[in-house]
Amino acid sequence: MADSEASDWEAEREAERRERRHLPMIGLGLSVLYVAGVALYLVIQGQNPADLALNELGDFVGGVSSPLAFLWLVLGFFQQSREIRLSSRALNLQAREMQRSVEEHRRVAEDG
């Protein structure tokens, strides 16, 4: 039974690992789309951020980068949540194995 639980856990872990690789790609894709959209908007409006005063340029960069920062914050949260879930499963599996080991040692000590 322990072997089947371990193999199930390993299969889940591999699936999580594959799924985890998708988050950075999703973030990268959304970031590229967002930056392209901002650039397209600027071209259509005929605006050049280089023409802005430094304080206005700082406001512009801060305003444009805030949604990207929030996107990556959320993606990081989801990735960390998955990592914590995997760690929790691993700890539960280890605790069960330790309990079985203790029970086996007790049985051996009582029989011996």
Task: Give an account of the 3D structure.
With 112 residues, the protein is an all-alpha fold. It has one domain (2-111). Helix content is 90%, strand content 0%. α2 (22-45) runs antiparallel to α3 (54-111). It is rod-shaped. 0% of the residues are buried. The mean pLDDT is 87.
Helical/strand content category:
mainly alpha
Query: What share of residues are in beta strands?
Result: under 5%
Overall 3D shape: rod-shaped
- Amount of helix: over 70%
Number of H- or I-type helical stretches:
3
Please give the number of β-strands: 0
What's the alpha carbon Rg, rounded to whole Å? Answer: 26 Å
| Domain tally | 1
Please trace the helix and strand order, writing H or E for each element: HHH
Q: What is the typical, i.e. mean, pLDDT?
A: 87
Q: What ranges have pLDDT less than 50 throughout 5 or more consecutive residues?
A: none
Transmembrane segments: 23-44, 60-78
Keywords: Membrane, Transmembrane, Transmembrane helix
Organism: Aurantiacibacter atlanticus
Protein name: DUF485 domain-containing protein
